[in-house]
Amino acid sequence: MQFGGKRKKLITNPQYELYGHCLQFYDKPPLENISLSEFETFAVERLRLLKTVENLGVSYVKTSEQYQKKLFAEFSNLNFPYKIEADDHKVQTGPTEHEKRRKDHISHFILRLAYCQTEDLRRWFIQQEMDLFRYRFNDLPPQLKTDFLHRNNLKYDMISTEEKNNLKEKLIHSSHAVSGVTLENQDFYKVPFQDALDLVRTRKVFLQGGYAYIPQQDIITIVLNDFRTRLSKALALTARSLPAVQTDERLQPLLNHLSHAYVGQDYSIQKNIGKISLEQIDSLSGKSFPLCMRQLHKALRENHHLRHGGRMQYGLFLKGIGLTLEQALQFWRSEFIKGKVDADKFDKAYAYSIRHMFGKEGKRTDYTPYSCMKVILSNPPSQGDYHGCPFRHSDPELLRQKLQSYKLSPSGINQILELVKGMHYQVACQKYFELTHNIEDSGFSLNHPNQYFIESQKVLGGGKEIKREAETVQKGTENTGSKTPSVSQQGSAQSAQVLGDMEALEAFFQDE
Amino acid sequence: MPNSDYDPACLPDLLPLYYRRLFPFSQYYRWLSYGGVTKNYFQNREFSFTLKDDIYVRYQSFSTQSELEKEMQKMNPYKIDIGAVYSHRPSQHNTVKTGAFQALEKELVFDIDMTDYDDVRNCCSAADICTKCWTLMTIAIRILDRALREDFGFRHLLWVYSGRRGVHCWVCDESARKLSVAARSAVAEYLSLVKGGEETVRKVALSDPIHPFISQSLTIVEHYFIDYAIKEQDILGTKESTDKVFALLPEDIRAELNSVFQKEKNPVKRWDKVKALIQLKRASLKKGSQYIEKEIMLQYCYPRLDVNVSKGVNHLLKSPFSVHPKTGRISVPIDLRELDRFDPFEVPTISLICEELDRPKTTEEEEEDERMKDKENEKEAGERRRIRDYKRTSLAKYVKVFDQFLDALARSRKGEMLKKSDLQKDF
Ligand code: SF4
Ligand SMILES: [Zn+2]
């Protein structure tokens, strides 16, 4: 440890400059040596933070107060730095602000090592780090935001007053953040539309000639875009230097443990395989399927066909509840050939994609059953589609009718529709679960259609084998949150013999 | 109609002729090599062929124009699809380490298909189209073309009739070809206003402020709305279609209109009443329904995109000048200057153009043939003959549109190069 009690000297140290702001862009890798045990603690705690980011992101709207409150709580719990300026003079009880910033810095770089190894890991890591960054940046007071941009040399093109006046009407109509009153004092940045995709996608910005005109308030979009670009580039580079790390027998097991900890619930690992018969599906769909799957099942039975989006969403769900490949093929074939597709065409055009879902064709990529998040956010249904989440994608009126036809109480229906209105689709779905299963509190937090199924089977005690298996699956997944500490214990047992200062981490983050 | 005589059974006989004497290979090659600026751009492009009996072969690729010609003349594909430019030759994708074979670039494409409008068409359904509902495609092209050019700054857009019931757009600017998946989906979503499947009644929801893109699109829709939706589709004519519109209106307006419509039968005046009533009730309307009138117009007329087609870099799309096996029509470029007059039923079928080829030559053409004979060497001869061949058919005017598109591409490439060399001089 270099830093203990020698703070005065630090003023001339470049490290001090590095930690001059509570938020960083993680441009420069850490240059110091750290002990293996600190390495571990840092990594594990940041991982916990990122997992919290992920979990909150699933349960709450990211701009909501609860999200911010809960994230803040975890933040201070784990001693990560928070929007105050470094003040090393004050005597504090816990770690100093400087120490927190150092931890933020180093822990980020350690996880880069663990999470650069595969495309999936990289995607997960970038997503969580971005959410974390967005939250932290948004929370800064304006002056610290500007300070941050300066420090990191982020200069974006500002438009002239003249151009602003010419585009006045259009700018006002492009964003909530702009009005005739505020326009005069507002700066606008002009960036290629590719750098502001989130604003473009949602039409929250004025576009002309390939440029997006971004009001000051939305600058986070560009900063975040920069953040993502840099991070994904850096991860790719880190991945290339990984062989060097992999030969380090102290680090390798640790990094592997870290990267395995993220996976969370994986409903593709099926313990129920073959425990469900095709005859059961109709009755299960009424009792234990979430609304999205019930809707798909009904549409399939009625139309003897589902379009691609529906086949994927429903097919993977069925795989997740335990259908074997043979059953799945039989199930889809028998339904499709009742419609316009004959057996021959089915085998040619559809069987492949079903085998694909079971990883029997092509390269095996992402064939896990879709989570609620995925169903709700990606690939919304269009004309002729029945997939998606009914709480999100149905007209409230139709949803009401549907719930009525399922004999839900009027007050229950109103509660559900209220939740839908507030955009809490999964909570609405959970309410539906409670109402249809006659329980007060379901005692789980819904984020996956297959989880819905498993929980339902638990409550109904249906199909005894299914139940027992379901419980073990659930146990396994519930633990993921608390698994992390145990990982770290294992890690430290292993590393006890090799304790000592490590090589400078810098070596692993060479820029070019 | 000149093409009513197309018989799918003849396709196997016509295709060899088409690929031997009519398909515009040189323009096609010129297009996909994009001036040879990027090495192996044409060579690493995926083509896929659908052969007789729905046999589908992916990952075809060709090193030269003549190789492409030879293969197409040998295989006589019923349908040709174009895919992405890959990191390696697609034909050798099996020999490359998995993971290394990656789709790198592709035109940004849009696919608009009439079947997606089934809930708002009264004239036809599914794969059928008529000149009435074709207006939907005209509107779609107008709106998307404007936005892609003005909002996104793209300049090289090739609009193509799919041969049956829709249109495709190929955005060919270099910057468009390089877009990431995320960028493509952002563009497609920016352009999508109609949302929701079978379970959604109200598919367009506008809120304050109305984005300039939406206002501009509305201006275009308004231009067509009365003639197309009110008069031709007669959406306020029958009880059934009126009910569909009513489903989008708030309860009290619906009730009042019901009684007004008892007396008023003229659809245009009916629409005026709808607008007037909404106007009248504006103040009392719930937030979120103050733009109903605009929403109705958009729901009935706004382009419906298949976002998934636009998103993927490696998504395949039917190639221009491919034949539609069901209708026999050639997938031809559309001249936007003549857009309002474009009639899908006038697009030549393969049987028509093959027949035109058999008509006796004019004396002029004979003389031209004679004059050329001695000068040309073997290869050029084939090329020239083919040019003279398609020029004698109704395909000619569409190839011309394609030529103009290619010239514009070449011009801006040249401009780019000049700019670059100027920059170099500056240093
Ligand atoms: S919340 Fe999840 S499980 Fe429930 S209907 Fe929506 S997608 Fe299905
Ligand atoms: Zn029609």
From TrEMBL, chain A:
General function of this protein: Regulatory subunit of the DNA primase complex and component of the DNA polymerase alpha complex (also known as the alpha DNA polymerase-primase complex) which play an essential role in the initiation of DNA synthesis. The primase subunit of the polymerase alpha complex initiates DNA synthesis by oligomerising short RNA primers on both leading and lagging strands.
Residue ranges with Low complexity bias: 486-495
Keyword Acyltransferase: no
DNA primase large subunit C-terminal domain mapped to chain residues: 283-453
Protein name per its UniProtKB record: DNA primase large subunit
CDD domains: PriL_PriS_Eukaryotic
Gene3D superfamilies: 1.20.930.80
Subunit structure: Heterodimer of a catalytic subunit PRIM1 and a regulatory subunit PRIM2, also known as the DNA primase complex. Interacts via (C-terminus) with PRIM1. Component of the alpha DNA polymerase complex (also known as the alpha DNA polymerase-primase complex) consisting of four subunits: the catalytic subunit POLA1, the regulatory subunit POLA2, and the primase complex subunits PRIM1 and PRIM2 respectively. Within the complex, POLA1 directly interacts with PRIM2.
PANTHER family: DNA PRIMASE LARGE SUBUNIT
UniProt GO BP: DNA replication initiation; DNA replication, synthesis of primer
Superkingdom to which the source organism belongs: Eukaryota
Residue spans of biased composition, Polar residues class: 474-485
Positions annotated to bind [4Fe-4S] cluster: 292, 372, 389, 429
TrEMBL record, chain B:
Keywords: DNA replication, DNA-directed RNA polymerase, Metal-binding, Nucleotidyltransferase, Primosome, Transcription, Transferase, Zinc
Cited Pfam families: DNA_primase_S
GO-annotated molecular function: DNA-directed RNA polymerase activity; metal ion binding
Stored InterPro entries: DNA_primase_S, DNA_primase_ssu_euk/arc
Catalytic activity: ssDNA + n NTP = ssDNA/pppN(pN)n-1 hybrid + (n-1) diphosphate
Required cofactor names: Mg(2+); Mn(2+)
UniProt entry tagged with the keyword Transferase: yes
Residue ranges with Basic and acidic residues bias: 370-385
Domain of life: Eukaryota
BP terms from Gene Ontology: DNA replication initiation; DNA replication, synthesis of primer
Region (Disordered): 358-385
EC number in record: 2.7.7.-
Record's GO cellular component terms: alpha DNA polymerase:primase complex
Keyword Chaperone: no
Protein family: Belongs to the eukaryotic-type primase small subunit family.
NCBIfam families in the record: primase_sml
PANTHER family with a match to the protein in the record: DNA PRIMASE SMALL SUBUNIT (PTHR10536)
Record's protein name: DNA primase
Highest classification ranks of the organism: Eukaryota, Metazoa, Chordata, Craniata, Vertebrata
